[in-house]
Amino acid sequence: METLTEQILRDTIRIRPDKSHKGTYGRVCLVGGNAQFGGAIMMATEAAVYSGAGLNTTLTDPVNFVSLHSRLPEAMVADFHDTEQLEQLVKAATTVVVGPGLGTDADSLTALETVFKTVTPAQILIIDGSAITLVADKSLTLPKARLVFTPHEMEWQRLSGIPISNQHNDENEKVRAELNGIVVLKSHHTRIYTAKGTYLNPTGTPAQATGGMGDTLAGMVGGFTAQFTDLENAVLAAVYTHSAIADELAESQYVVLPTQIMHQLPRFMHEHQALK
Ligand SMILES: NC(=O)C1=CN([C@@H]2O[C@H](COP(=O)(O)OP(=O)(O)OC[C@H]3O[C@@H](n4cnc5c(N)ncnc54)[C@H](O)[C@@H]3O)[C@@H](O)[C@H]2O)[C@@H](O)CC1
Ligand SMILES: Nc1ncnc2c1ncn2[C@@H]1O[C@H](COP(=O)(O)OP(=O)(O)O)[C@@H](O)[C@H]1O
Ligand SMILES: [Mg+2]
């Protein structure tokens, strides 16, 4: 297992060429946020926007439209119950993030199944939170796409069948290979399983142990993968950055809020950008 270093930032975060526009930096489509968990998709969306994704559209329950827009006018919104619109927006995306605050009721399942039916092999699909729980509970067939799973240990237990106490590298890698994607197994020592290798994230702090922290990471993975070309590096850099910013803030804070992390992204990415 390789331990990540700051090098992953220089390998991934690019100095932007002058000759570029919003279309250059990818389209993220985020699906989630039922009436109970609107905050989750708002945090994921805000994290994608602050990561620098060029265009961001959020499909959520309409009860979340006003609150999302009032804090984040940069994002576009649509109703996740509208299957036709969901299909259109998924088709247009570079990266789709599904699951933060999606919930597990019949409407949530319909939205997830529509995403799975619509996404194509060239597209990146980040499967987080409730979407992981639904895949496990309903034994859903995964689509052919560039898949990235972001489970915490309990979600990984549901999806992989491996109890938390037995989540060792060999067992985890075996299930990752079956899933045919990248797995970000989140914990106090997050490990990332890819076809090329297994990585340990050395950054992170218990000050991060608060609701919405993973929703924020899912949005960042969305933003990074939509704009940086190497999928594996983009995922690794997002995981490293999320917790490295938390470490900085935890030097003077008892708890670090997800919204504080995302607001540091433009500054942190500026400090770590590099030429190819
Ligand atoms: N503000 C919001 O709207 C929030 C919405 N959320 C959404 O709520 C839905 C349910 O997700 P939850 O994760 O809360 O519920 P889950 O039921 O999926 O998992 C939480 C349970 O897993 C246990 N657990 C064991 N190991 C863990 C680990 N390493 N990390 C985290 N939990 C671990 C926890 O103790 C807890 O009992 C998701 O869609 C999620 O996105 C949450 O992210 C919380 C914030
Ligand atoms: N003690 C800890 N040390 C380091 N990172 C932590 C710790 N506790 C939680 N985290 C991080 O916080 C995030 C929690 O994700 P998740 O449980 O999905 O949150 P939520 O669904 O509430 O948004 C993960 O990135 C995890 O690595
Ligand atoms: Mg989560």
Strand-helix topology:
Layout: E1 2-3, H1 7-10, E2 27-31, H2 38-51, E3 55-60, H3 65-71, E4 76-79, H4 83-92, E5 95-98, H5 106-118, E6 124-128, H6 129-137, E7 146-150, H7 153-160, H8 169-179, E8 181-185, E9 191-193, E10 198-200, H9 213-227, H10 231-250, H11 258-272
Parallel strand pairs: 1-10, 2-3, 2-5, 3-4, 5-6, 6-7, 7-8
Antiparallel strand pairs: 8-9, 9-10
Helix pairs in contact: 2-9, 2-11, 4-5, 6-7, 9-10, 9-11, 10-11
Bound molecules: ligand NAX, adenosine-5'-diphosphate and magnesium ion.
The site of adenosine-5'-diphosphate has 18 residues, from helix 9.
Please, could you describe this protein's structure?
Helix 9 (213-227) packs parallel to helix 11 (258-272). The protein contains eleven helices and ten strands. Strands 1-10-9-8-7-6-5-2-3-4 form a ten-stranded mixed β-sheet, sandwiched between helices. The mean pLDDT is 98. With 276 residues, it is α/β, with parallel strands linked by helices. The protein has one domain: UDP-N-acetylmuramoyl-L-alanine:D-glutamate ligase (3-Layer(aba) Sandwich). GO terms for molecular function: ADP-dependent NAD(P)H-hydrate dehydratase activity; ATP binding; kinase activity; NAD(P)HX epimerase activity. Keywords: ATP-binding, Kinase, Lyase, NAD, NADP, Nucleotide-binding, Transferase. This is ADP-dependent (S)-NAD(P)H-hydrate dehydratase. (6S)-NADPHX binds at residues 40, 101, 152, 215.
